[in-house]
Design brief:
- The chain is of the alpha+beta class and about 210 residues long.
- It folds into 2 domains: about 10-145, Alpha-D-Glucose-1,6-Bisphosphate, Chain A, domain 4; about 155-205, no CATH class.
- The chain has helices spanning about 20-30, 35, 135-145, 190-200, and strands at about 10-20, 50-55, 60-65, 70-80, 85-90, 105-115, 115-125, 155, 160-165, 175-180, 185-190, 205.
- The strands form 3 sheets. The protein has a 7-stranded antiparallel β-sheet. It has a 3-stranded antiparallel β-sheet with strand order 11-10-12, with no helix packed on it. A two-stranded antiparallel ribbon has the order 8-9.
- Strand 10 (about 175-180) and strand 11 (about 185-190) form a beta hairpin.
- The two termini are about 35 Å apart.
């Protein structure tokens, strides 16, 4: 696609800190991608069963439907475990795969202490969507905000903690990282009960 003059949307950026070493944070983001990606964010005709990032430069990035069908999303541009990942996102503003479209998603993992990692997200080159670039940025921003509220299910998790799950209830048991409703902190599963007992974090959102 050719960028339209005058349309240069800012990249979509996000910065969070997770209570996990960089190696573990990278693993959860990549090898467990399908366990935390919202099932509502799918481009296939069949309901989403899994989403996969192949662990190598040049690897595929795709979804698998419940009927076994596969839909391409893009590919791995850079695989620098456990510090950096760059993905080619080839889905347009209408949530359709376009092999001629290239936008990039970069994720950097910076360990800031023994058990804490800063994770930086950047979705860039949105101008490659042409005259839909500004709209695409709004859609992507909205999708990130809605990821935790679309298809939410309330249930009691470990120790009676109330958990809000985006997507499907079954993904609660698969998640290793959680966002707390109190102070918007990110914690690892192994610290979940301690955090609730000692910090009063309240509701927990699987990531």
């Amino acid at each position: 696609m050719i960028a339209v003059a005058g349309i240069m949307p800012e990249p979509v950026r996000k910065l969070i800190t997770v209570e996990a070493p960089a190696e573990r944070a990278f693993e959860v983001f990549t090898s467990q991608f399908g366990t935390w990606w919202p099932a509502t964010h799918s481009i296939g005709s069949s309901p989403l069963k899994n989403a996969v990032i192949e662990p190598r430069t040049g690897g595929r990035w795709y979804e698998v439907g419940e009927d076994g069908s596969e839909c391409e999303w893009g590919e791995v541009i850079a695989w620098e475990k456990p510090t950096r990942l760059v993905l080619a996102w080839r889905i347009d503003v209408d949530w359709r795969y376009d092999p001629n479209l290239l936008t990039e998603v970069e994720v950097r993992f910076t360990q800031v202490s023994e058990n804490a990692t800063q994770v930086e997200f950047e979705h860039r080159l949105l101008e490659n969507m042409g005259d839909k670039a500004a709209a695409a940025r709004e859609v992507l921003q909205f999708a990130r905000r809605m990821a935790r509220s679309t298809g939410c299910v309330r249930r009691k998790g470990e120790g009676g903690v109330e958990i809000i799950c985006a997507g499907s209830e079954s993904s609660v048991g698969k998640c290793d990282l959680f966002r707390t409703g109190h102070r918007n902190r990110i914690i690892h599963r192994q610290h979940l009960l301690r955090a609730v007992r000692h910090r009063g974090v309240g509701e927990i959102f699987p990531l």
